[in-house]
Amino acid sequence: MSRKVAFKTLGCRLNQFETDSIVTDFHKAGYEIVPFESQADVYVINTCTVTNQSDQKSRNTINQAVKYAGNKGITIVTGCMVSSRKDFLESRNDITYVVDNKNKSSVFPLVESHFNGEVVLPSDFNQDLFGFTVVEKGFHTRSMVKIQDGCNNFCSYCIVPKVRGREISRPAGDVLENIRQVVGLGFKEVVLTGVNIGRYYHSGLIFEDLVEKVLQLPGDFRVRISSIEPEGFTDKFIELFENPKLCQHLHLCLQSGSDEILKLMRRFYTVDQFTRFTEKFKKRYPLFNFTTDVIVGFPGETDGHFQQSADVARNIGFSHIHTFKYSMRKGTLAEKLPNHIPEKIKAGRSETIRAIAEENKAAYRRMFIGKEQTVLIERPNDKPGAKGYGEHYIPIAIKDCNAEQNTFRKVVIADIANDADKTAIGHLKA
Fold first, then answer.
1. In b/e form, how buried is each residue of 30-40, taking b as 16+ CB within 10 angstroms?
2. Least reliable range by pLDDT among 138-142, 152-156, 364-368
3. For residue 4, with 0-12 CB atoms within 10 Å meaning exposed, 13-18 middle and 19 or more buried, which class applies?
4. Residue 382 scores a pLDDT above 70
5. Where are the domains of the chain?
6. Global pTM?
7. What architecture does CATH give domain 372-428?
8. Which residue in 52, 79, 193, 235 has its CB near the most CB atoms, within 10 A?
9. In 10 A of CB 3, how many CB atoms?
């Protein structure tokens, strides 16, 4: 009987990619991948620590895994919480292995050594940040490809440089070969991911150059860019989106609509620069989709500063906003700033931004009525119908469609549903 393994991933797309790669390792070795709530021999938790809430979710998930594992299973905790709370995690007697990000790609050989009765440590294995197996079996229809890790920005509120380390980029040849392999395995969509992918630099190639090379690869696939910082791009980057392989969507991180708050955050752009960048895109591609992150209640944020954020969110028309209440992280510059904002005020500001985001989402998606989209099918239904995402990253439900997962279908958008996602309703193109 094959052993069973369960996974839980918290946080970013990079964590999701790394989990998918580890899943592939176990799958290829004959393990059965089971739901996290099921009985398993191995539980792997890939943690996040970007906010206090992330820490709490990670702790809760670890406690669940320990309970499920009982006296028979083993529990492995990896990810960014390990880098920030390693001593605390190692002091617990109920976690079998605590694995740093730099050793994360070695989770599978660590487990195999454990079951073979070998006494090993995570540090005994490979410490290659890009040493992950090409994803064949994971939890996602699209294939994420890691191109970069680490960050040198040191924003005043952020502990990511501490838990992920300094910037490092993957050789372009390795990235391109990874994409050739996943396309060869049948993946139809590739997501370029990392911690700060806009800072990609290797052997004279910058991010724009890498994307251009990716788009030149043969095959029936499209490319999506994950979360990116608004800095350092030229007009060439905008021109790349003329290529139909490159999806017209960017998650461009704003964080605040106030220049004063951006300076306190140590963000290296102004609101005007950010706005002009998005305007260039929309002038050339009127349906281009911008989504973003906004932090509310940063220390020193007045009602006036917050109103500037609300105004920018409305004016740019982000179709989705990840809204975060400022979360104090020990060891950051923002921890020492004066005028921390009461939780009640942060909660109210968060609700205001969420309401703006919902208005924006509905208005943006109504623009697609009568227009064509190419949908990557992610969830076929038992009855005729399917769901997936178009090239502008809006969810689309297709009626009367018997489509298989991981296939493209061209549809015409007929309506926008009143559900929470404002799902577009499409019909197959005649």
1. ebebeebeeeb
2. 138-142
3. middle
4. no
5. 4-124, 143-366, 372-428
6. 0.93
7. Beta Barrel (2.40)
8. 79
9. 16
- Encode pLDDT of 237-295 as tens digits: 999 999 999 999 999 999 999 999 999 999 999 999 999 999 999 999 999 999 999 99
Instruction: Give yes or no for residue 123 having a pLDDT over 90.
Output: no
Question: Under CATH, which number does the domain 143-366 receive?
Answer: 3.80.30.20
CATH number of 4-124: 3.40.50.12160
The reply to whether domains 4-124 and 372-428 share a CATH topology is no
